Amino acid sequence: MTVYIDPPNWPGHGRMWSHLVSDVSYAELQEFADRLGVPRRAFERDHYDIPSPRYDEVVAAGAVEVSSREVVRLLTESGLRRRKGGGRDGKRDGGRDRRGDGPPDGGRGDGVVSC
């Protein structure tokens, strides 16, 4: 299992955030997040939002550090990229990915929350 995390350089809700992603499946990503106790409500479209205080813990648990640009590339090339307002790469797809294991929230993208 390989999951990836970008640096905590995304501001929101008074803190900085990282994105935790998989280039294999949402199920792989969910399994990793569950092991760390990251709440499912922290899932947003195609990634988990991880607050900066948890960054080192997530890396120590096995997430590979990559740039934000690399996160986008990994998601896009794997077919798991889901942009705001649509499905994968902006195409409306009902929250399903090509392997049939949709995101943990069914594609709602409930927003950024603390974990």
Name the helicity range.
10-25%
* Helix/strand/pairing category: alpha+beta
Separation of the first and last Cα atoms: 22 Å
3D shape: globular
One letter per element, helices H and strands E, the order comes to EEEHEEHEH
- Which spans of ≥5 residues are poorly predicted at pLDDT below 50? 87-100, 105-115
What's the Cα radius of gyration? Answer: 13 Å
For the sheet with most strands, the description reads: 6 strands, mixed
Number of helices: 3
Tell how many strands the DSSP assignment holds. Answer: 6
On the 0 to 100 scale, the average pLDDT is 80
Q: Percent of residues in beta strands? A: 15-25%
Question: Which helices and strands, and how do they pair?
Answer:
Elements: E1 3-5, E2 10-12, E3 15-22, H1 26-36, E4 43-44, E5 47-51, H2 55-60, E6 64-65, H3 68-78
Parallel strand pairs: 1-6
Antiparallel strand pairs: 1-3, 2-3, 3-5, 4-5
Quickly describe the structure.
The protein is of the alpha+beta class and 115 residues long. The protein has helices spanning 26-36, 55-60, 68-78; strands at residues 3-5, 10-12, 15-22, 43-44, 47-51, 64-65. Strand 4 and strand 5 form a beta hairpin.
